[in-house]
Every structure is written in C-alpha cells, then in structure tokens.
Amino acid sequence: MKFYDLSGSDNKRFSPFGWRVRMSLAHLGLEEHAQVELVKFSQKDKLKFSGQELVPVIQDNRVTISDSWRIAEYLENSYTSQPTLFISLTNKAYEKFVASWVDSQVHPLVAKCVVRDILDVIDPNDREYFRRSREARFGMSLEEIVANREETRTSLKRRLFPVRKVLELNPFLGGKSASFADYSVFGAIMWARITSSFDILEEHDPIIDWRERMLDLYNGLARKETAREH
C-alpha cells in the first residue's frame, strides 16, 4: 500500500484529511505497512495518476482511492469483517455527519486561527502559491485573516459544543473507543498543533483531555509528531 500525504518543510505532515487517514491506518494496524509518499503543494504532478490533485490518496495493489472518507470506507471494507472504523458497518450516518460538520463548520474557523502560521512550516518554494491562493479564497491578506484569532477561538469553542456534550458521556466520540468520528475532529486539532503555536483550545476546555487521549493512541503516534510550541 502507498499513502500520498501532504508535507511541509522538515517533512511536517499537517493535512487534517491526511491525519484522518493516518489514524485510520493505525486503527487497523496498517500504518507501519503503508509506504508514505510525501507531496508538497508544488508537487501535484505526483498525483496525476489519481485523476485529481488533492491528497490524501491511497494506492493498494491496483486500486487507487482519493478523499479521506472514501479511503476510510475502502479500508473498512477491505481489511475488516466487523465494524472498527465506524460504529456500525451497515450505517455510517453518524461518522459521515461528523466528518461533514467538521469540514463545513470547524475547518473554516481553525483556518482563520492558523493560516498565516502555515506559511512558516511549508517549503519555501510553496509560499508564494500558498499566500496567493489562500488570500484569494478569503479575500484578504493572511495577516488580516488571523488578526482577530482570539475572537475566532471563542467562536470555535461555541462551535465545538456538541463534541463536549458527547465527551461528557464517553471517553471518545465513538463511545468507549475511537472511531472515524474522532479522527475527523482530531485531524483539525493536528492541523493546528503542527502548524501553529496558537492553541485553538482555551485553557481548561474539556476537549483537551480528549486531545491527550487521542495523542496517546497507537503508542503515541500523533504525540511523536513535532508540535509548534504554544
């Protein structure tokens, strides 16, 4: 199996979607067996074989899959006979809801907290493209985007309310153990943790305890990745 994942300078792997796949592979005991091909923003030619330009991408024998959700479904269908990544093998509505909610409601706020800092952790050759493309997307400079990130963090805290309520009842969003729902939220956390010294969670937020549990999973897989100092 070959796993194409986004990379910055010093091989920093910060893509939130890449982390969904990486945690899913670890969940299934496949992470150490997947050959990782790091892809920088300026190396989209590496992905031509997949018919699109975005990571993550998995090549497994003759099968090529892009998109973190589709990859998770493929891994679940190909490597398990019982539900492991998803709470139910026949009904994935909960995990799909959480993943879509993170994409549409959480990622935009995380981006407004850390997008300027990402510039400092990517390859110097990618910086002009990154600044130009993100400033076009937001309609303002990177510096302006993050100027009010303390307020953005407060908005993010409110947006994460459903996560807190689930964690009041369970150690993980998947219940007693982590599921793809956890990996969807955790991808956003790792995106910020690796790229920025700004902590997107306020002190004493109960979600911090869950973050620590997630960092410890699979022999501390995520904790071993170098985080920018808060």
Written account of the structure:
The structure is a single chain. The chain is an alpha+beta fold. Helices cover 50% and strands 8% of the residues. The protein is built from nine helices and four strands; from the N terminus they run βαβββαααααααα. It has a four-stranded mixed beta sheet, with helices on one face. It is globular, with a radius of gyration of 17 Å.
How would you concisely characterize the structure shown here?
This protein is an alpha+beta fold and 230 residues long. The chain has nine helices and four strands, in the order βαβββαααααααα.
Topology of helices and strands:
Elements (H helix, E strand, L loop, with lengths): L1 E5 L9 H12 L7 E5 L17 E4 L2 E4 L1 H12 L13 H26 L8 H12 L3 H4 L3 H11 L1 H7 L12 H16 L11 H14 L10
Parallel strand pairs: 1-2
Antiparallel strand pairs: 1-3, 3-4
